[in-house]
Amino acid sequence: MRRGEASARRPWTLQSGNALLLFLPGLFLAVFFLWPLLRVVVRSVTDPQLGFENYVRVFGTGAYVRVIRTTVETAGLVTLLTLLLAYPVAYAIARAHGLRLKLLMIFVLVPLWTSVVIRSYGWMIVFQRQGVLNDILLSLGLTDTRLLLLPGAVAVYVGMVHIMLPFMILPLVASMRAIDRSLLLAADVLGAPPHRRFLEVFLPLSLPGVSAGVALVFMTSLGFFVTPALLGGPRLLMAAVLIEEAANVRLDWPIASALSTTLLLITTALYLVYLRLTRGSAPLLGR
Amino acid sequence: MSGSASALARRGAFASFVGLCFTYLLLPSVIIVPMSFSSQSYLSFPPSGLSLRWYQGLAADPAWQAAAMNSFLIGLPSALIAVTLGTLAALATERGGLRWATTAVAVIVAPMMLPHVILAIGLYPVMLELGMLRGYLGAIVGHAVIGLPLVFVSVSAVLKNYTPALELAAMTCGADRLRSFLHVTLPMIRMGVLGGGILAFAASFDELMLSLFLTGTGTRTLPRLIWEQLNDFLTPTIAAVATLIFSFSLLLLGALAVFGRIGRSMPAPLALATAETAAHG
To answer: Which of A98, A160, B68, B247 is deepest in the core (most CB within 10 A)?
Structure first.
Protein backbone atom coordinates (compact mmCIF):
# COMPACT_ATOMS: atom_id res chain seq x y z
CA MET A 1 0.00 0.00 0.00
CA ARG A 2 1.48 3.26 -1.09
CA ARG A 3 -0.55 5.21 1.44
CA GLY A 4 0.82 3.13 4.29
CA GLU A 5 4.38 3.89 3.26
CA ALA A 6 3.76 7.62 2.85
CA SER A 7 2.81 7.99 6.50
CA ALA A 8 4.71 5.16 8.05
CA ARG A 9 4.69 6.63 11.54
CA ARG A 10 0.95 7.03 11.90
CA PRO A 11 -1.64 4.59 10.52
CA TRP A 12 -3.70 5.92 7.64
CA THR A 13 -7.14 7.19 8.55
CA LEU A 14 -9.83 8.89 6.52
CA GLN A 15 -8.82 12.17 8.11
CA SER A 16 -5.18 12.05 7.02
CA GLY A 17 -4.29 14.88 4.73
CA ASN A 18 -7.69 16.60 4.90
CA ALA A 19 -6.19 19.32 7.06
CA LEU A 20 -4.11 20.32 4.02
CA LEU A 21 -7.33 21.43 2.32
CA LEU A 22 -7.30 24.34 4.74
CA PHE A 23 -4.14 25.74 3.15
CA LEU A 24 -5.71 27.76 0.32
CA PRO A 25 -8.67 29.22 2.26
CA GLY A 26 -6.32 29.87 5.18
CA LEU A 27 -3.85 31.72 2.99
CA PHE A 28 -6.66 33.73 1.37
CA LEU A 29 -8.14 34.78 4.72
CA ALA A 30 -4.70 35.53 6.16
CA VAL A 31 -3.84 37.90 3.30
CA PHE A 32 -7.21 39.51 2.65
CA PHE A 33 -8.87 39.38 6.08
CA LEU A 34 -6.47 39.04 9.04
CA TRP A 35 -3.64 41.10 7.52
CA PRO A 36 -5.92 44.07 6.67
CA LEU A 37 -7.37 44.01 10.20
CA LEU A 38 -3.87 43.93 11.68
CA ARG A 39 -2.93 46.87 9.46
CA VAL A 40 -5.83 48.89 10.88
CA VAL A 41 -4.77 48.17 14.47
CA VAL A 42 -1.09 48.90 13.77
CA ARG A 43 -1.88 52.10 11.88
CA SER A 44 -3.98 53.37 14.80
CA VAL A 45 -0.86 53.42 17.01
CA THR A 46 1.84 54.31 14.45
CA ASP A 47 0.31 57.00 12.23
CA PRO A 48 1.54 59.76 12.30
CA GLN A 49 3.96 58.51 14.98
CA LEU A 50 4.28 55.69 17.51
CA GLY A 51 1.98 56.14 20.50
CA PHE A 52 -1.59 56.37 21.64
CA GLU A 53 -2.15 59.95 20.55
CA ASN A 54 -5.00 58.92 18.18
CA TYR A 55 -6.84 57.33 21.08
CA VAL A 56 -6.19 60.40 23.23
CA ARG A 57 -7.78 62.40 20.40
CA VAL A 58 -10.74 60.00 20.10
CA PHE A 59 -11.48 59.72 23.81
CA GLY A 60 -10.58 63.35 24.53
CA THR A 61 -12.95 64.78 21.93
CA GLY A 62 -16.53 65.15 23.13
CA ALA A 63 -17.96 64.61 19.64
CA TYR A 64 -16.20 61.24 19.15
CA VAL A 65 -17.08 59.97 22.62
CA ARG A 66 -20.69 60.99 21.99
CA VAL A 67 -20.74 58.96 18.74
CA ILE A 68 -19.35 55.87 20.48
CA ARG A 69 -21.93 56.26 23.25
CA THR A 70 -24.75 56.80 20.73
CA THR A 71 -23.62 53.69 18.84
CA VAL A 72 -23.68 51.45 21.92
CA GLU A 73 -26.98 52.94 23.20
CA THR A 74 -28.67 52.64 19.80
CA ALA A 75 -27.49 49.03 19.43
CA GLY A 76 -28.83 48.26 22.91
CA LEU A 77 -32.22 49.88 22.30
CA VAL A 78 -32.57 48.23 18.87
CA THR A 79 -31.71 44.83 20.41
CA LEU A 80 -34.36 45.26 23.11
CA LEU A 81 -37.08 46.39 20.68
CA THR A 82 -36.17 43.58 18.27
CA LEU A 83 -36.47 40.98 21.03
CA LEU A 84 -39.86 42.31 22.16
CA LEU A 85 -41.27 42.08 18.61
CA ALA A 86 -39.49 38.88 17.58
CA TYR A 87 -40.50 36.69 20.53
CA PRO A 88 -44.25 36.55 19.81
CA VAL A 89 -43.60 36.20 16.06
CA ALA A 90 -41.15 33.32 16.67
CA TYR A 91 -43.71 31.75 19.02
CA ALA A 92 -46.34 31.87 16.27
CA ILE A 93 -43.89 30.37 13.71
CA ALA A 94 -42.71 27.65 16.10
CA ARG A 95 -46.30 26.48 16.62
CA ALA A 96 -47.21 26.55 12.92
CA HIS A 97 -46.81 23.64 10.54
CA GLY A 98 -47.39 22.68 6.91
CA LEU A 99 -48.21 25.42 4.42
CA ARG A 100 -48.72 28.00 7.15
CA LEU A 101 -45.16 27.44 8.43
CA LYS A 102 -43.72 27.73 4.93
CA LEU A 103 -45.62 30.93 4.26
CA LEU A 104 -44.55 32.54 7.56
CA MET A 105 -40.91 31.55 6.93
CA ILE A 106 -41.07 33.12 3.46
CA PHE A 107 -42.53 36.32 4.97
CA VAL A 108 -39.50 36.45 7.28
CA LEU A 109 -37.01 35.72 4.49
CA VAL A 110 -38.40 38.05 1.79
CA PRO A 111 -37.36 41.32 3.44
CA LEU A 112 -33.86 39.86 3.86
CA TRP A 113 -33.61 39.58 0.14
CA THR A 114 -34.41 43.22 -0.39
CA SER A 115 -31.17 45.16 -0.33
CA VAL A 116 -30.57 47.27 2.76
CA VAL A 117 -30.10 50.40 0.67
CA ILE A 118 -33.45 49.84 -1.00
CA ARG A 119 -35.23 49.14 2.29
CA SER A 120 -33.90 52.41 3.71
CA TYR A 121 -35.24 54.11 0.59
CA GLY A 122 -38.63 52.50 1.33
CA TRP A 123 -38.53 53.98 4.84
CA MET A 124 -37.63 57.39 3.37
CA ILE A 125 -40.87 57.22 1.36
CA VAL A 126 -42.78 56.38 4.54
CA PHE A 127 -41.18 58.96 6.84
CA GLN A 128 -40.71 61.99 4.57
CA ARG A 129 -42.72 65.18 5.17
CA GLN A 130 -45.19 64.36 2.38
CA GLY A 131 -44.96 60.66 3.22
CA VAL A 132 -47.43 57.93 4.14
CA LEU A 133 -46.96 58.20 7.89
CA ASN A 134 -47.69 61.94 7.94
CA ASP A 135 -50.78 61.30 5.77
CA ILE A 136 -52.06 58.74 8.27
CA LEU A 137 -51.30 60.90 11.33
CA LEU A 138 -53.07 63.87 9.71
CA SER A 139 -56.17 61.92 8.72
CA LEU A 140 -56.44 60.42 12.20
CA GLY A 141 -56.19 63.92 13.61
CA LEU A 142 -53.17 63.02 15.75
CA THR A 143 -51.29 66.08 14.50
CA ASP A 144 -52.39 69.15 12.60
CA THR A 145 -49.05 69.92 10.92
CA ARG A 146 -46.80 67.59 8.99
CA LEU A 147 -43.97 66.37 11.24
CA LEU A 148 -40.32 66.48 10.29
CA LEU A 149 -39.34 62.85 10.95
CA LEU A 150 -36.46 62.67 8.52
CA PRO A 151 -33.64 62.75 9.45
CA GLY A 152 -34.49 61.49 12.90
CA ALA A 153 -33.78 58.90 15.57
CA VAL A 154 -37.24 57.27 15.33
CA ALA A 155 -36.77 56.55 11.62
CA VAL A 156 -33.37 54.96 12.35
CA TYR A 157 -34.82 52.74 15.10
CA VAL A 158 -37.69 51.63 12.85
CA GLY A 159 -35.28 50.91 9.98
CA MET A 160 -32.74 49.06 12.12
CA VAL A 161 -35.26 46.93 14.03
CA HIS A 162 -36.75 45.99 10.67
CA ILE A 163 -33.37 44.76 9.40
CA MET A 164 -32.52 42.90 12.62
CA LEU A 165 -35.90 41.17 13.20
CA PRO A 166 -35.14 38.02 11.12
CA PHE A 167 -31.82 37.56 12.96
CA MET A 168 -33.69 37.39 16.23
CA ILE A 169 -36.65 35.40 14.87
CA LEU A 170 -34.58 32.60 13.30
CA PRO A 171 -32.50 31.55 16.36
CA LEU A 172 -35.63 31.92 18.54
CA VAL A 173 -37.62 29.62 16.24
CA ALA A 174 -34.74 27.12 16.25
CA SER A 175 -34.63 26.96 20.06
CA MET A 176 -38.44 26.99 20.47
CA ARG A 177 -38.88 24.10 18.05
CA ALA A 178 -36.31 22.12 20.03
CA ILE A 179 -38.41 22.33 23.21
CA ASP A 180 -39.80 18.96 24.22
CA ARG A 181 -43.58 19.37 23.97
CA SER A 182 -44.22 16.63 26.53
CA LEU A 183 -42.82 18.99 29.19
CA LEU A 184 -45.60 21.47 28.37
CA LEU A 185 -48.10 18.64 28.46
CA ALA A 186 -46.77 17.59 31.86
CA ALA A 187 -47.26 21.13 33.18
CA ASP A 188 -50.83 21.00 31.84
CA VAL A 189 -51.57 17.66 33.43
CA LEU A 190 -50.20 18.86 36.75
CA GLY A 191 -52.73 21.69 36.63
CA ALA A 192 -50.58 24.69 35.68
CA PRO A 193 -52.66 27.51 34.16
CA PRO A 194 -51.46 28.68 30.68
CA HIS A 195 -49.54 31.71 31.97
CA ARG A 196 -47.58 29.63 34.49
CA ARG A 197 -46.94 26.95 31.88
CA PHE A 198 -45.45 29.69 29.69
CA LEU A 199 -43.50 31.59 32.38
CA GLU A 200 -42.11 28.58 34.26
CA VAL A 201 -41.58 26.02 31.48
CA PHE A 202 -41.57 27.49 27.97
CA LEU A 203 -39.79 30.79 28.62
CA PRO A 204 -36.78 29.32 30.52
CA LEU A 205 -36.36 26.62 27.88
CA SER A 206 -36.26 29.23 25.09
CA LEU A 207 -33.57 31.33 26.80
CA PRO A 208 -30.62 29.82 24.84
CA GLY A 209 -32.20 31.14 21.63
CA VAL A 210 -32.80 34.51 23.30
CA SER A 211 -29.16 34.92 24.37
CA ALA A 212 -27.79 33.84 20.97
CA GLY A 213 -30.18 36.20 19.18
CA VAL A 214 -29.43 39.10 21.52
CA ALA A 215 -25.65 38.69 21.09
CA LEU A 216 -25.96 38.42 17.30
CA VAL A 217 -28.26 41.42 16.95
CA PHE A 218 -26.27 43.65 19.32
CA MET A 219 -22.99 42.77 17.54
CA THR A 220 -24.43 43.47 14.08
CA SER A 221 -26.19 46.66 15.19
CA LEU A 222 -22.89 48.20 16.30
CA GLY A 223 -21.64 48.22 12.68
CA PHE A 224 -24.70 49.69 10.97
CA PHE A 225 -23.97 52.15 8.20
CA VAL A 226 -26.66 52.59 5.55
CA THR A 227 -29.68 53.02 7.84
CA PRO A 228 -28.20 55.66 10.18
CA ALA A 229 -26.50 57.45 7.27
CA LEU A 230 -29.69 57.76 5.20
CA LEU A 231 -32.35 58.07 7.90
CA GLY A 232 -30.46 59.57 10.85
CA GLY A 233 -28.06 62.00 9.26
CA PRO A 234 -26.50 64.35 11.82
CA ARG A 235 -29.39 63.64 14.25
CA LEU A 236 -28.15 60.14 15.01
CA LEU A 237 -24.50 59.62 14.10
CA MET A 238 -23.19 56.07 14.48
CA ALA A 239 -19.58 54.81 14.47
CA ALA A 240 -19.55 53.24 10.99
CA VAL A 241 -20.90 56.45 9.43
CA LEU A 242 -18.25 58.49 11.24
CA ILE A 243 -15.45 56.10 10.19
CA GLU A 244 -16.51 56.14 6.53
CA GLU A 245 -16.70 59.92 6.58
CA ALA A 246 -13.32 60.26 8.35
CA ALA A 247 -11.61 58.04 5.74
CA ASN A 248 -13.44 58.93 2.52
CA VAL A 249 -14.31 62.61 3.05
CA ARG A 250 -11.86 64.07 5.57
CA LEU A 251 -9.06 61.63 4.62
CA ASP A 252 -8.20 61.43 8.34
CA TRP A 253 -7.00 57.81 8.29
CA PRO A 254 -5.34 57.85 11.74
CA ILE A 255 -8.66 58.73 13.40
CA ALA A 256 -10.56 56.31 11.14
CA SER A 257 -8.10 53.55 12.18
CA ALA A 258 -8.40 54.34 15.90
CA LEU A 259 -12.21 54.39 15.72
CA SER A 260 -12.18 51.14 13.70
CA THR A 261 -9.90 49.47 16.24
CA THR A 262 -12.23 50.52 19.06
CA LEU A 263 -15.21 49.09 17.16
CA LEU A 264 -13.17 45.96 16.33
CA LEU A 265 -12.32 45.35 20.00
CA ILE A 266 -15.95 45.72 21.13
CA THR A 267 -17.20 43.46 18.33
CA THR A 268 -14.53 40.81 18.91
CA ALA A 269 -15.37 40.66 22.62
CA LEU A 270 -19.06 40.19 21.75
CA TYR A 271 -18.15 37.61 19.08
CA LEU A 272 -16.27 35.54 21.68
CA VAL A 273 -19.29 35.71 23.99
CA TYR A 274 -21.50 34.69 21.08
CA LEU A 275 -19.26 31.70 20.22
CA ARG A 276 -19.41 30.70 23.88
CA LEU A 277 -23.20 30.89 23.88
CA THR A 278 -23.51 28.82 20.72
CA ARG A 279 -20.81 26.40 21.89
CA GLY A 280 -18.65 26.80 18.79
CA SER A 281 -19.84 23.61 17.16
CA ALA A 282 -22.88 25.15 15.55
CA PRO A 283 -21.98 28.83 15.44
CA LEU A 284 -25.25 29.87 13.80
CA LEU A 285 -27.79 27.69 15.48
CA GLY A 286 -29.58 29.24 18.39
CA ARG A 287 -29.13 26.33 20.71
CA MET B 1 -68.33 31.58 30.02
CA SER B 2 -66.15 34.59 30.72
CA GLY B 3 -63.01 32.41 30.87
CA SER B 4 -63.17 31.24 27.27
CA ALA B 5 -64.23 34.73 26.15
CA SER B 6 -61.12 36.29 27.67
CA ALA B 7 -58.99 33.47 26.25
CA LEU B 8 -60.48 34.24 22.84
CA ALA B 9 -59.73 37.94 23.30
CA ARG B 10 -56.17 37.14 24.31
CA ARG B 11 -55.70 34.92 21.29
CA GLY B 12 -57.15 37.64 19.06
CA ALA B 13 -54.78 40.25 20.51
CA PHE B 14 -51.82 37.92 19.99
CA ALA B 15 -52.82 37.16 16.39
CA SER B 16 -53.25 40.84 15.51
CA PHE B 17 -49.90 41.71 17.13
CA VAL B 18 -48.14 39.03 15.07
CA GLY B 19 -50.05 40.20 11.98
CA LEU B 20 -48.85 43.77 12.55
CA CYS B 21 -45.25 42.53 12.88
CA PHE B 22 -45.50 40.75 9.53
CA THR B 23 -46.97 43.88 7.93
CA TYR B 24 -44.00 45.81 9.32
CA LEU B 25 -41.60 43.19 7.88
CA LEU B 26 -43.07 43.41 4.38
CA LEU B 27 -43.90 47.14 4.22
CA PRO B 28 -40.69 48.72 2.84
CA SER B 29 -40.25 46.04 0.17
CA VAL B 30 -43.86 46.29 -0.95
CA ILE B 31 -44.20 50.08 -0.89
CA ILE B 32 -41.50 50.49 -3.53
CA VAL B 33 -43.27 48.56 -6.29
CA PRO B 34 -46.22 50.96 -6.85
CA MET B 35 -43.86 53.96 -6.54
CA SER B 36 -41.92 52.74 -9.57
CA PHE B 37 -45.03 52.98 -11.76
CA SER B 38 -45.80 56.57 -10.67
CA SER B 39 -46.35 59.19 -13.35
CA GLN B 40 -45.01 62.03 -11.19
CA SER B 41 -41.42 62.92 -10.50
CA TYR B 42 -41.96 63.39 -6.75
CA LEU B 43 -42.64 60.60 -4.33
CA SER B 44 -46.26 60.45 -3.25
CA PHE B 45 -47.98 57.33 -2.02
CA PRO B 46 -50.23 56.04 -3.46
CA PRO B 47 -49.11 57.43 -6.85
CA SER B 48 -51.84 59.52 -8.51
CA GLY B 49 -51.13 58.27 -12.02
CA LEU B 50 -49.45 55.26 -13.55
CA SER B 51 -46.71 55.16 -16.17
CA LEU B 52 -43.64 53.24 -17.28
CA ARG B 53 -41.55 56.39 -17.75
CA TRP B 54 -39.03 55.50 -15.01
CA TYR B 55 -38.37 52.10 -16.55
CA GLN B 56 -37.98 53.73 -19.99
CA GLY B 57 -35.59 56.24 -18.43
CA LEU B 58 -33.56 53.37 -16.98
CA ALA B 59 -33.35 51.59 -20.32
CA ALA B 60 -31.99 54.77 -21.88
CA ASP B 61 -29.41 55.51 -19.18
CA PRO B 62 -26.00 53.89 -19.78
CA ALA B 63 -24.87 54.56 -16.18
CA TRP B 64 -27.44 52.14 -14.73
CA GLN B 65 -26.67 49.51 -17.35
CA ALA B 66 -22.94 49.77 -16.66
CA ALA B 67 -23.55 49.49 -12.91
CA ALA B 68 -25.76 46.41 -13.37
CA MET B 69 -23.08 44.87 -15.62
CA ASN B 70 -20.38 45.62 -13.02
CA SER B 71 -22.46 44.00 -10.28
CA PHE B 72 -22.47 40.77 -12.27
CA LEU B 73 -18.81 41.06 -13.36
CA ILE B 74 -17.82 41.35 -9.70
CA GLY B 75 -20.51 39.11 -8.16
CA LEU B 76 -20.05 35.99 -10.29
CA PRO B 77 -16.23 35.60 -10.00
CA SER B 78 -16.31 36.47 -6.28
CA ALA B 79 -19.02 33.83 -5.71
CA LEU B 80 -16.84 31.32 -7.61
CA ILE B 81 -13.81 32.06 -5.39
CA ALA B 82 -16.01 31.89 -2.28
CA VAL B 83 -17.49 28.54 -3.36
CA THR B 84 -14.07 26.97 -4.00
CA LEU B 85 -12.39 28.20 -0.83
CA GLY B 86 -15.47 27.88 1.38
CA THR B 87 -16.02 24.25 0.35
CA LEU B 88 -12.34 23.39 0.92
CA ALA B 89 -12.49 24.98 4.38
CA ALA B 90 -15.69 23.11 5.27
CA LEU B 91 -14.16 19.78 4.18
CA ALA B 92 -11.02 20.45 6.21
CA THR B 93 -12.81 21.41 9.43
CA GLU B 94 -15.56 18.77 9.19
CA ARG B 95 -13.43 15.87 7.95
CA GLY B 96 -9.87 16.81 8.91
CA GLY B 97 -9.99 15.84 12.59
CA LEU B 98 -8.26 19.10 13.46
CA ARG B 99 -7.53 19.69 17.11
CA TRP B 100 -8.02 23.45 16.67
CA ALA B 101 -11.09 23.13 14.47
CA THR B 102 -13.17 25.40 16.75
CA THR B 103 -10.63 28.21 16.40
CA ALA B 104 -10.46 27.71 12.63
CA VAL B 105 -14.26 27.89 12.37
CA ALA B 106 -14.33 31.06 14.48
CA VAL B 107 -11.84 32.78 12.13
CA ILE B 108 -13.55 31.57 8.94
CA VAL B 109 -16.98 32.77 10.10
CA ALA B 110 -15.65 36.08 11.49
CA PRO B 111 -15.92 38.15 8.23
CA MET B 112 -19.66 37.55 8.41
CA MET B 113 -19.93 39.06 11.90
CA LEU B 114 -17.54 41.99 11.69
CA PRO B 115 -18.70 45.50 10.69
CA HIS B 116 -17.77 45.77 7.02
CA VAL B 117 -16.41 49.28 7.50
CA ILE B 118 -13.43 47.87 9.44
CA LEU B 119 -12.62 45.40 6.66
CA ALA B 120 -12.99 48.17 4.07
CA ILE B 121 -10.60 50.46 5.98
CA GLY B 122 -8.09 47.60 6.18
CA LEU B 123 -8.42 46.36 2.59
CA TYR B 124 -8.02 49.81 1.04
CA PRO B 125 -4.23 50.19 1.67
CA VAL B 126 -3.62 46.49 0.92
CA MET B 127 -5.36 46.75 -2.46
CA LEU B 128 -3.58 50.03 -3.14
CA GLU B 129 -0.19 48.37 -2.68
CA LEU B 130 -1.19 45.37 -4.79
CA GLY B 131 -2.35 47.71 -7.56
CA MET B 132 -5.85 46.24 -7.35
CA LEU B 133 -7.66 49.35 -6.15
CA ARG B 134 -10.61 50.65 -8.24
CA GLY B 135 -10.29 47.75 -10.65
CA TYR B 136 -12.46 44.65 -10.87
CA LEU B 137 -9.95 42.35 -9.15
CA GLY B 138 -9.85 44.27 -5.85
CA ALA B 139 -13.64 44.31 -5.56
CA ILE B 140 -13.89 40.63 -6.55
CA VAL B 141 -11.39 39.59 -3.87
CA GLY B 142 -12.97 41.85 -1.24
CA HIS B 143 -16.45 40.49 -1.91
CA ALA B 144 -15.10 36.92 -1.84
CA VAL B 145 -13.95 37.48 1.76
CA ILE B 146 -17.59 38.27 2.64
CA GLY B 147 -18.93 35.34 0.61
CA LEU B 148 -16.55 32.66 1.89
CA PRO B 149 -18.15 32.22 5.35
CA LEU B 150 -21.61 31.95 3.77
CA VAL B 151 -20.49 29.02 1.59
CA PHE B 152 -18.59 27.55 4.54
CA VAL B 153 -21.64 27.60 6.83
CA SER B 154 -23.90 26.22 4.13
CA VAL B 155 -21.57 23.33 3.17
CA SER B 156 -20.65 22.51 6.79
CA ALA B 157 -24.34 22.20 7.68
CA VAL B 158 -24.82 19.63 4.92
CA LEU B 159 -21.60 17.73 5.74
CA LYS B 160 -22.72 17.37 9.37
CA ASN B 161 -25.70 15.36 8.13
CA TYR B 162 -23.59 12.66 6.49
CA THR B 163 -21.34 10.18 8.23
CA PRO B 164 -17.69 9.99 7.06
CA ALA B 165 -18.26 6.20 6.92
CA LEU B 166 -19.67 6.72 3.41
CA GLU B 167 -16.34 8.07 2.14
CA LEU B 168 -14.46 5.40 4.08
CA ALA B 169 -16.59 2.76 2.36
CA ALA B 170 -15.73 4.18 -1.05
CA MET B 171 -12.01 4.13 -0.30
CA THR B 172 -12.18 0.64 1.16
CA CYS B 173 -13.70 -0.44 -2.16
CA GLY B 174 -10.60 0.93 -3.88
CA ALA B 175 -11.58 4.48 -4.85
CA ASP B 176 -8.74 6.98 -4.48
CA ARG B 177 -9.25 10.31 -2.74
CA LEU B 178 -10.26 12.19 -5.89
CA ARG B 179 -12.75 9.56 -7.05
CA SER B 180 -14.22 9.32 -3.58
CA PHE B 181 -14.65 13.09 -3.54
CA LEU B 182 -16.16 13.29 -7.03
CA HIS B 183 -18.50 10.30 -6.74
CA VAL B 184 -19.42 10.27 -3.04
CA THR B 185 -18.73 13.57 -1.25
CA LEU B 186 -19.62 16.02 -4.01
CA PRO B 187 -23.07 14.53 -4.79
CA MET B 188 -23.84 14.71 -1.04
CA ILE B 189 -22.86 18.34 -0.57
CA ARG B 190 -24.01 19.58 -4.01
CA MET B 191 -27.02 21.44 -2.60
CA GLY B 192 -24.97 23.06 0.14
CA VAL B 193 -22.38 24.21 -2.40
CA LEU B 194 -25.00 25.58 -4.77
CA GLY B 195 -26.99 27.24 -1.99
CA GLY B 196 -23.81 28.76 -0.56
CA GLY B 197 -22.85 30.03 -4.00
CA ILE B 198 -26.20 31.78 -4.40
CA LEU B 199 -25.80 33.33 -0.94
CA ALA B 200 -22.29 34.52 -1.78
CA PHE B 201 -23.47 36.06 -5.05
CA ALA B 202 -26.39 37.76 -3.28
CA ALA B 203 -24.01 39.12 -0.61
CA SER B 204 -21.77 40.60 -3.28
CA PHE B 205 -24.75 41.96 -5.20
CA ASP B 206 -25.90 43.85 -2.08
CA GLU B 207 -22.48 44.91 -0.73
CA LEU B 208 -22.14 48.66 -0.41
CA MET B 209 -19.35 49.42 2.06
CA LEU B 210 -16.57 47.47 0.29
CA SER B 211 -17.70 48.88 -3.05
CA LEU B 212 -17.50 52.43 -1.67
CA PHE B 213 -13.83 51.90 -0.84
CA LEU B 214 -12.66 49.46 -3.50
CA THR B 215 -14.48 50.36 -6.74
CA GLY B 216 -13.87 53.38 -8.97
CA THR B 217 -16.18 55.25 -11.34
CA GLY B 218 -15.60 52.63 -14.05
CA THR B 219 -16.30 49.66 -11.78
CA ARG B 220 -19.01 51.01 -9.47
CA THR B 221 -21.77 48.54 -8.66
CA LEU B 222 -25.55 48.96 -8.44
CA PRO B 223 -25.69 49.53 -4.66
CA ARG B 224 -23.02 52.20 -5.00
CA LEU B 225 -24.84 54.00 -7.82
CA ILE B 226 -28.12 53.85 -5.87
CA TRP B 227 -26.27 55.22 -2.85
CA GLU B 228 -24.81 58.13 -4.82
CA GLN B 229 -28.22 58.95 -6.31
CA LEU B 230 -30.00 58.71 -2.94
CA ASN B 231 -27.73 61.32 -1.45
CA ASP B 232 -28.56 63.78 -4.22
CA PHE B 233 -32.19 63.43 -5.21
CA LEU B 234 -35.17 61.20 -4.61
CA THR B 235 -36.94 60.22 -7.83
CA PRO B 236 -38.97 57.12 -8.72
CA THR B 237 -36.01 56.03 -10.91
CA ILE B 238 -34.53 54.38 -7.83
CA ALA B 239 -37.90 52.73 -7.13
CA ALA B 240 -37.79 51.24 -10.64
CA VAL B 241 -34.24 49.94 -10.09
CA ALA B 242 -35.29 48.65 -6.67
CA THR B 243 -38.29 46.83 -8.13
CA LEU B 244 -36.09 45.15 -10.74
CA ILE B 245 -33.52 44.10 -8.11
CA PHE B 246 -36.33 42.95 -5.80
CA SER B 247 -37.78 40.74 -8.56
CA PHE B 248 -34.32 39.35 -9.28
CA SER B 249 -33.76 38.64 -5.56
CA LEU B 250 -37.08 36.82 -5.39
CA LEU B 251 -35.91 34.66 -8.30
CA LEU B 252 -32.71 33.85 -6.37
CA LEU B 253 -34.77 33.13 -3.24
CA GLY B 254 -36.99 30.87 -5.34
CA ALA B 255 -33.90 29.04 -6.61
CA LEU B 256 -32.70 28.67 -3.03
CA ALA B 257 -36.13 27.41 -1.98
CA VAL B 258 -36.00 24.74 -4.68
CA PHE B 259 -32.45 23.66 -3.78
CA GLY B 260 -32.53 24.27 -0.04
CA ARG B 261 -36.19 23.50 0.63
CA ILE B 262 -37.23 26.37 2.86
CA GLY B 263 -39.32 25.58 5.90
CA ARG B 264 -38.98 22.72 8.27
CA SER B 265 -36.37 20.88 6.25
CA MET B 266 -34.31 24.01 5.59
CA PRO B 267 -31.28 23.87 7.83
CA ALA B 268 -31.34 26.72 10.30
CA PRO B 269 -27.76 27.79 9.53
CA LEU B 270 -28.71 28.24 5.90
CA ALA B 271 -31.72 30.32 6.91
CA LEU B 272 -29.57 32.44 9.15
CA ALA B 273 -26.86 32.73 6.55
CA THR B 274 -29.56 33.98 4.20
CA ALA B 275 -30.26 36.56 6.82
CA GLU B 276 -26.64 37.53 7.13
CA THR B 277 -26.30 38.44 3.46
CA ALA B 278 -28.53 41.43 3.83
CA ALA B 279 -27.55 42.40 7.32
CA HIS B 280 -24.67 44.73 7.02
CA GLY B 281 -26.46 48.01 6.65
So the answer is: A160
